[in-house]
Request: fold
Amino acid sequence: MIDGPDEAHQRPAGVDDATVEALGKLSEALEVVEHARGLLYGFHRLTGTADLALGEAVTLLRESGHPELADRIDTELVGRNVIDGRWTFQVIEEYDRGYYETFRRFEQEARDDLVGGRRHLFEAEMKEDRRSHGRPHHEARPPER
Reply:
């Protein structure tokens, strides 16, 4: 059995520690952006859920004899833009089209140019350094199937 990372997680010949560290930091930054994007989708879903519940509240206010308040909420808040001219789906589309796609492109370009597209080299080397070689649950790779 081979006790080390697979070829996809080994640095190519001639790649120095500083490059692997820089790519690791770039990967870390992308992971934070991915997390932020997920939170943006959460914001989108929560805002949409709130707007639908608000519509139900308007109906209940009308049914319970408060048509003036219901009308004000319905016309001023239900379906309102969350940011000037935008609903949350438009915020996500702009984020994806601008910052997110640009970030992913540069991260991919850096990996392609510097290490042949390999991912997580910094983490793979950290795993090799931190794991207890030869111990159960500290294997370098998953079992072959």
Observations:
- Residues 17-130 form one domain.
